[in-house]
Amino acid sequence: MILPSRLRGAAAAPPHDKAPARHDNRGVEAAAAGVKVTELLGALSFGADLGLGHPTEHVLRQTYIALRLAECLAMDEQEREVVYYASMLAWLGCHIDAYEQAKWFGDDQAFKHDAAYLDIDDVAGSVAFVLRHIGDGRPLAERIKAGVGFLSDGRHDLDQMYTNHWRAASALSEDLGLSDAVRDSVAQTFERWDGKGEPDGVEREEVLPSARLVHLADVVEVFHHIGGVKAAVDVARARSGGQLDPALVELFATEAETIFGELGQVTTWDAVMAKAPTVGRELGDDDLDRVLAAIADFVDLKSPYTLGHSRGVAELAAGAAAELGMDTRTVRRAGLVHDLGRMGIPNTIWDKRAPLTAGEVERLRLHPYYTDRILASVPALAGLASVAAQHHERLNGSGYPRGSTAESLTPEGRLLAVADCYQAWSEPRPYREALDTGKIAARLREEVKAGRLDGAAVDATLRAAGHQVRRNREWPAGLTAREVEVLRLLARGLSQKEIAERLVISRKTASNHVEHIYAKIGVSNRAMASLFATRRGLL
Q1: Rounded CA gap, 509 and 499, in Å?
Q2: Are residues 232 and 312 located together in one domain of the fold?
Q3: CA-wise closest residue to 480 among 516, 441, 435
Q4: Is residue 23 domain-resident?
Q5: Best exposed site among 10, 41, 428, 431 by fewest CB in 10 Å?
Q6: Residue 15: inside a domain, yes or no?
Q7: Residues 6+ apart with CB under 8 A from 65
Q8: Does 12 map to a domain?
Q9: Domain end (from 256, 274, 292)
Q10: By residue range, what is the domain housing residue 292?
Q11: Are residues 182 and 292 in the same domain?
Q12: What is the DSSP letter of 518?
């Protein structure tokens, strides 16, 4: 996959390198403020691109094309706002029935990628497309069985896909507080100029101008990627009067060279954000919490085995954070969005009952990396990105995607990793039943003994989940629980004044704690105290 310029750079290290995970506390604490709806949708569009099997920035480029044509039509600001949001939302629902797509057609991403080149007006081509993909990737006998089943149940599933997609995207637009006009346009994502679309078969001017622009922009962007301006103009003219509005096609044909020339000269993210609507740009804390929860539910729809998973991780992690006196809001938010990258992995992997192949394992290991890159595209969410991406990392370096070790993992990331394990093991998977709570607790403690998970995070998570866990843990060098808290903050570079403020104690008390810590562990400065804490897994 080629990452867009917005997602490249020093922070976008290769997914399997040994570079330390990014984690500055300032970034995590600042992650609550200044999140713009437009940027949030831009970030989600990268997930949609991955799920559709398109090159990253397809949705952004589509949106730029639609907005440029809207300007040529002299649409006013309110109308362009509808175009912007309708375009950014159009394909976000395409993963919600990925389970059914994989069931009938194999790799759901490959199926959606190939479908982008299909015109349903070509009946012979449509039949050939379905036959080519039925049971794709399976032995011949299973493909034949899938074909027979498709004639009874599969056709119904296929008919429902268009409606499912736009309804999911429309529901998300409501969660974002967008207008009825945006939802009306999203509802027409699969309509056609000739009336042969879904769900209502409206035609010609009954199809909203914003929806017509999105239809055109989507098609021409796909074909431009494989054949340049000529291919984009040719496909538009070939579908004129069928899928596409003839007047818009002629306008596009006139402006195509200019529009694609502009796209070749700009950073797509910046160009689209510059054209984004100016109203309702930022989410407050409570609104952001609500929207992130909605996104969590939205992502978990990708597989029936993960329904409610992200909310479960978020609440469990927040409960454990409270046990440890950590910032519960940051941990909860990271839990809600930790699996955004799941949209980039096909359901043939997520829902496979048999053992995964080596290639499938490598693809699966990318999903936290995708989460990181999706979230990091929004400056105000960069702190959450660094925490969310750590949910499959392990203290001994055996985790993924970066193979980070203890010294480069944040306390929040360690906690999230444990909460994710607990929640996932309590849920069924296609290859196993859900584990009971006793087995989960035992398995977590085995992970601690093996040096993979943080012991304090495991204890706190088990307490948050209702287990009876002894609180008077024996800390190394005779440190008390409070001294360990102070040591963690000291190691992170906080001054004694800042430690006092964080723990709501006097500065003198903080100073006394630091002196006692130094005496117990036999060091005289922060750097050596940090080394002690790192080697003993206290951070």
Answers
A1: 10
A2: no
A3: 516
A4: no
A5: 10
A6: no
A7: 216, 217, 220, 221, 259, 263
A8: no
A9: 274
A10: 284-464
A11: no
A12: H
Contacts of 426 by beta carbon, 8 Å cutoff, 6+ apart: 312, 434, 435, 437, 440
- With contact defined as beta carbons under 8 Å apart, do 6 and 267 qualify? yes
Q: In this structure, is residue 30 part of a structural domain? A: no
The token pair that represents 362 in the structure block: 């490598």
Instruction: Assign 282 to helix, strand or coil.
Output: strand
- Token pair recorded at residue 50: 């991955």
CA geometry: angle at 311 spanning 309 and 312, to 5°? Answer: 60
CATH number at residue 427: 1.10.3210.10
Task: Return the number of other C-beta atoms located less than 10 Å from residue 23's C-beta.
Answer: 20
- Predicted TM-score (pTM) of this structure: 0.73
DSSP letter at 319 equals H
Distance of alpha carbon 515 from alpha carbon 520, whole angstroms: 9
Report the domain count for the chain: 3
Residue bearing tokens 């090159």: 55
| C-beta of residue 373 within 8 angstroms of C-beta of residue 329 | no
**Separation between Cα atoms, residue 115 and residue 463, nearest integer Å:** 48
Torsion from C-alpha of 427, 428, 432, 434, nearest 10 degrees? 50
How many whole angstroms separate alpha carbon 193 and alpha carbon 246? 9
Same domain, 165 and 210: yes
Q: 151: which DSSP letter?
A: I
Q: Residue 407 in contact with residue 394, Cβ under 8 Å? A: no
Dihedrals φ, ψ of 229, to 5°?
Answer: -60, -40
Phi, psi for residue 275 in degrees, rounded to 5 = -95, 0
One digit per residue, the tens of pLDDT, for the chain of length 539 reads 333 434 433 333 333 333 333 333 334 443 445 788 888 888 888 888 887 778 888 899 999 999 999 999 999 888 999 999 999 888 887 766 666 766 667 677 676 766 666 677 766 766 766 666 676 777 777 777 767 666 666 666 666 666 777 677 777 777 777 888 988 898 888 888 899 888 888 889 999 999 999 999 999 998 998 899 999 999 999 999 998 999 999 999 999 999 999 988 878 888 888 888 765 467 788 888 888 988 888 888 888 888 889 999 999 999 999 988 888 999 999 999 999 898 888 888 888 888 989 999 999 999 999 999 889 888 888 888 999 999 999 999 999 999 998 888 999 999 999 999 999 999 989 889 999 999 999 999 999 988 899 988 999 999 999 887 765 567 888 888 888 889 988 888 888 998 998 888 899 999 999 999 999 888 888 888 887 887 677 76
Measured CA to CA, the distance from residue 65 to residue 260 in angstroms comes to 8
Q: Which residues contact 285 (CB under 8 A, 6 or more apart)?
A: 32, 33, 329
- DSSP class of 107: -
Separation in Å, CA 273 to CA 8, 75, 91, 173, 353 = 18, 18, 18, 18, 42
| 208 within 8 A of 188, measured Cβ to Cβ | yes
